[in-house]
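Long-time lurker. I teach an intro course on protein structure, and each term I like to show students one example going from raw sequence to a predicted 3D structure in token notation. This year I'd like something fresh instead of my usual example. Would anyone be willing to generate the tokens for the chain below so I can use it in lecture? Attribution to the forum is fine with me.
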Amino acid sequence: MKNERGILLESGTNELEIVEFTVGNNKFGINVIKVKEIINPVSVIPIPHSHPYVEGIMELRGEVLPVVNLANVLGYPPSSTSEKDKFIVSEFNKMKVIFHVHHVNQIHRISWENIEKPTGMYQGADSQIIGVIKFSGEMILLLDFEKILVDINPDSGINVQQVKKLGKRERSNKRLVVVEDSPLLRKLLEDTLVEAGFYNIEFFENGLDALNYLEKESGDKNTQDVVQLVITDIEMPQMDGHHLTKRIKDNPQLAHLPVIIFSSLITEDLRHKGQRVGANGQVSKPEIAELILLVDEHIL
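-- Reply from a regular --
Happy to contribute to a lecture. Here you go:
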């Protein structure tokens, strides 16, 4: 199973595996790549004056890790059957965090094409939901775990001050395509890229929309005259960043475009997946200064 999973994710097939869990009466999902292990709850030490989402801290194999109670995050009451509660130990954005959930069900393999983007009618500006999966007559909600951590600690997100330290530059004639499904991160990326001198930016919520745009542009003219570089997240409904990168590099009219993957899933263990699909660079969120320097390197 482990080898099969590696082949699946390395080939850029636009599929993923999720761990399905419940909080209250609703089912939610987290990308398997973010999950280190699932354990039974142990004693948690409360921290005075901590954020309401944070249940406390605990020690796991010599590391002191924060425990985030997802019932608190989502506004649900505590579990009525606490003996079934689980701790999901996760790692992303170069951080390890434990999420307290009410029950862990099973693992599903699905296509990003089957994940719908929440509409503005029910998502709302402060929603933690980034995708809706229709599965076996039920719905599984994908949570925006990056946003949850930024809500708890804003300093863990993209910081425009890092870009200001790089100094002024003239990049207004450079055109970028940025693909990011999170409204919060799109706004942060826009603010920081503008601060870095990039004013000509096309934003897309998923890889499919971005690819359609690039293919349309390439049909009329040399895309290099219009777009100099693509920045993409990995986890996105409809088409993920690995598959988008593969489709760009497999297209003779687009293959010249540098593609930089900017994702919370960039680790030394997973970096080879982006290399496999032809990414020109990979940066872990929230290292925005590193991203800007890499963009400069590929569009000079």
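Some talking points for your students: The first helix runs from residue 2 to 10. Confidence is low (pLDDT under 50) at residues 1-9.
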